């Protein structure tokens, strides 16, 4: 198994639960039976989630290998990066997670799911499912960060209840409980609350099928995880709809390597069938309100931070980005085109994969008669916190498929993009059993001349909406001689070899595509646990400042990261490992 068996422990929830659950405080016999009440309660839970927004990104990114903290960073940020997170660190507050959980528990206990409208439709089922997803996601974050956590599914409304002893669940226990809890709700549609503030509320929910994919991925149920992610993709815009990767990229205009073409790379927050953002946590618009996101000020120079950033790309990320081989194809030549690899001696901002160059920009600024070093990371130009994005679900689908035993399927998500024609040519011929063919046959990415999943084709001038994710920043990956499916005739266990090598490609792609988005530490953790090799995570984190500075980074962190217990937070000896 990927994660260790659950251990039945008990713990008091004192210091975690408060009996002032805003918006969802009811007497024992009160039931949510009116639409106004349920909407008020649902938005109250969304409000509680705001307190988790920044730390979700920071705990997932600062402990990984893709960013470094600067001398301007606060002690709390530096503590996260150095795995020295004390009880008084502002981002070490389990009660904020349990505030969300308790509000969800109250809602679930009080919501009258039997109420129907005049069309005999269940009135509150959508909201009920959304709240169950909020609770599952929050518990998953707790378990990922603290290891073992007090597990409570009934409302805490009295001091006596808060002081009671409760079962403790680890990551596996959390995953198994919520897989069972959410599976019956997988096809329930999201609530339709319209615009909340200036945000389309459809972006404020956690899709249950995606969340089930994450739970199954952590639990090691790889085939089911792949099917869950596919279910999300196939229903993201309604039943039997399309949700392709999209024609989004940053690329060289020509092989003179001077100018760039950027197509639809912005993570805008509008809701459409082609949306880039799937789920986000809405932040306050006014800093004094308490849940205002500071991420923009951590990543970007601004007046608010006196033009001094706290977080920058690590040398490890820069080296990974520059090590990629960019492949150019002259589309005007059609079938006569041949791959051209970008020279290795291009200027730094043109070297390797182009996504980092597009996402991260630096330069000299001038304000009030003083010069300053400017930094901009364009993934943080909004007050809202992006949790799930479109390309992320394809990368997790690839990870699940690979570990399920289908590395060629996973590789095509990176290299070419997938539709049914790609599966027929590059995947199904390597399915050597009827069971494998039947499993792959459950995935359908149909295309016609103008609709569905249209892959890029150098011999055709038709439009496309599907491409390999590596091509978003590295050109025509499907023609790149340096980016090939791994083969080695000398290894005895060919499939295991291919799975591990493709997994390495997927993890590199996660870094290139999802850097700064708060997923990196958990990606490394998941692979390290899966391989039963803690050094997989440790080596990468220690090398975040470059291979020449590993000893310095080890001395700075002062934690043995080859011991998985040191990956988790603790709080007052009452939660965590």
What does the model show?
The protein is α+β, with helices and mostly antiparallel strands. Helices cover 39% and strands 11% of the residues. Strands 1-4-3 form a three-stranded antiparallel sheet. A two-stranded antiparallel sheet has the order 2-10. The protein has a two-stranded antiparallel sheet with strand order 5-6. A hairpin with a 2-residue loop joins strand 5 and strand 6 (199-200). Helix 4 runs antiparallel to helix 6 (171-182). The radius of gyration is 24 Å and the shape is globular. The model is unreliable at 1-10 and 19-30 (pLDDT under 50).
Structure annotation, total helices:
20
Shape: globular
Low-pLDDT parts are 1-10, 19-30
Calculate Rg over CA atoms: 24 Å
């Amino acid at each position: 198994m990927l994660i260790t068996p659950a251990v039945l422990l008990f713990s008091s929830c004192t210091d975690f639960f408060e009996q002032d659950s805003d918006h969802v405080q009811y007497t024992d016999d009160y039931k949510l039976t009116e639409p106004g009440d349920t909407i008020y309660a649902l938005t109250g839970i969304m409000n509680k989630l705001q307190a988790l927004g920044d730390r979700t990104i920071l705990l997932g990114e600062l402990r990984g290998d893709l960013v470094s903290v600067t001398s301007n960073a606060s002690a709390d940020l530096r503590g996260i990066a150095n795995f020295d997170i004390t009880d008084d660190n502002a981002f070490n507050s389990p009660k904020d997670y349990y505030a969300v959980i308790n509000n969800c528990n109250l809602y679930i206990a009080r919501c009258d799911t039997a109420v129907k409208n005049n069309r005999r439709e269940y009135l509150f089922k959508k909201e009920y499912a959304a709240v169950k997803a909020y609770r599952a996601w929050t518990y998953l974050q707790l378990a990922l960060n603290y290891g073992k956590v007090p597990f409570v599914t009934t409302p805490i409304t009295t001091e006596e209840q808060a002081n009671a002893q409760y079962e403790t669940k680890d990551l596996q226990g959390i995953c198994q409980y919520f897989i069972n809890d959410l599976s019956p709700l997988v096809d329930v549609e999201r609530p339709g609350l319209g615009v909340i503030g200036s945000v389309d509320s459809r972006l404020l929910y956690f899709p249950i099928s995606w969340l089930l994919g994450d739970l199954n991925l952590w639990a090691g149920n790889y085939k089911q995880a792949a099917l869950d992610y596919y279910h999300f993709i196939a229903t993201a815009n309604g039943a039997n709809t399309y949700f392709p990767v999209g024609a989004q990229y940053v690329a060289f205009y020509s092989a003179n390597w001077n100018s760039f073409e950027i197509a639809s790379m912005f993570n805008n927050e509008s809701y459409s069938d082609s949306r880039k953002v799937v789920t986000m946590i809405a932040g306050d618009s006014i800093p004094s309100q308490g849940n205002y996101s500071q991420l923009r000020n951590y990543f970007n120079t601004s007046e608010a931070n006196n033009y001094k950033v706290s977080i920058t790309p690590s040398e490890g990320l820069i080296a990974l980005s520059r090590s990629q081989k960019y492949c150019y194809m002259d589309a005007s030549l059609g079938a006569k085109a041949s791959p051209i690899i970008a020279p290795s001696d291009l200027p730094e901002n043109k070297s390797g994969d182009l996504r980092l160059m597009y996402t991260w920009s630096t330069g000299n600024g001038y304000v009030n008669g003083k010069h300053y070093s400017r930094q901009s990371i364009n993934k943080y130009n909004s007050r809202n916190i992006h949790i799930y994005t479109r390309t992320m679900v394809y990368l997790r689908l690839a990870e699940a498929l690979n570990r399920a035993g289908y590395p060629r399927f996973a590789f095509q998500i990176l290299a070419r993009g997938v539709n049914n024609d790609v599966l027929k040519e590059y995947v199904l011929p390597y399915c050597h059993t009827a069971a494998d063919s039947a499993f792959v046959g459950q995935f359908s990415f149909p295309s016609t001349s103008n609709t569905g999943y249209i892959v890029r084709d150098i011999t055709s001038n038709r439009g496309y909406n599907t491409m390999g994710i590596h091509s978003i920043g590295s050109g025509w990956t499907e023609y790149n001689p340096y980016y090939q499916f791994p083969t080695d005739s000398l290894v005895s266990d060919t499939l295991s070899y291919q799975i591990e090598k493709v997994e390495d490609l997927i993890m590199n792609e996660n870094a290139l595509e999802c850097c700064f988005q708060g997923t990196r530490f958990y990606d490394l953790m998941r692979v390290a646990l899966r391989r039963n090799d803690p050094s997989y995570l440790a080596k990468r984190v220690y090398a975040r400042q470059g291979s020449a500075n590993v000893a310095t980074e080890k001395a700075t962190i002062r934690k043995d990261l080859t011991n998985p217990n040191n990956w988790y937070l603790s709080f007052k000896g009452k939660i965590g490992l």
